[in-house]
Amino acid sequence: MTLEDVRALGAAIDAEVSKAVVGQSGATRLLTIALLSGGHVLLEGAPGTAKTLLAQSFARTLGLDFGRIQFTPDLMPGDIIGASLFNFQTSSFQLTRGPVFTELLLADEINRTPPKTQAALLEAMQERAVTIDGETQKLSDRFTVVATQNPIEQQGVYPLPEAQLDRFLFKLAIDYPDEAGERAIVAQYGARTGSPRPADSGVAQIADGAALAAASDAVLGVRLADEIIGYVVALVRATRGHPDLANGASPRAASALAAAARAAAAMDGRDYVIPDDVKLLAQPLLRHRVVLSPSAEIDGRRADDIVAQLIDRVEAPR
Q1: Best exposed site among 28, 107, 256, 316 by fewest CB in 10 Å?
Q2: Does the keyword Nuclease apply (predicted)?
Q3: pTM for the predicted model, two decimal places
């Protein structure tokens, strides 16, 4: 697959998802970048902003096996990864695989379940494998987690710890649509009842596993110049010395930013990364990897504002 083919694939994915989800082209692009660079995505937005429909449409477009977990306070780790259950017919233990054995997993309202269950996803997200009864079970090479969380509720939720947040490549803020977009949503779905389904909007499969593997291989051919590497490192290191940040981003964030920038360049049909690729990805990639200082929280500062400030301060290569 050529880089021009990758660009065309990205445009086709966006066109298909847009049939069901109005006004979220930016989120669709970042989902595609995450998939091509082997990352996971956290979607944060108020109820009713099409987070679940976005994940469903994205999976349908690419022909990925899709699984969903509705997180609740009583969910246990075995409900996610599976367990060995005794089979009375054979008098032996038999492995029952959990919903994590899929290609795209929607972890709905991930902050509604306790940390013990949240942690069950850590090994799966990092290693693309899970351990059940001491045996390692491999997951799909394309295993991707798209998690959602509701930011407006504070009771009965368990915020994700920083260690798990760092496993997500991007944290996307799903905002309310503008007036024109909301009118389009009402016109499309106002006559229906129940949850919308991608198939009802004509979302079709336009790729398969072989195409995704070829696209990922094409991304590996994108060049990352020494000047761009220096810029990525300087930007990430700048988060560690900012007075409004108690903790900055880790070296893993720098590597992830470089990998995502290569995928973004490929989706534009380029075989080289430019500073704008890094700048456009810096906020969704760093906003959940930095921790505000107590004084910054009191003053109402936002991580996005600080990252934007650093983008302006750190000199980009010419």
Answers
A1: 316
A2: no
A3: 0.91
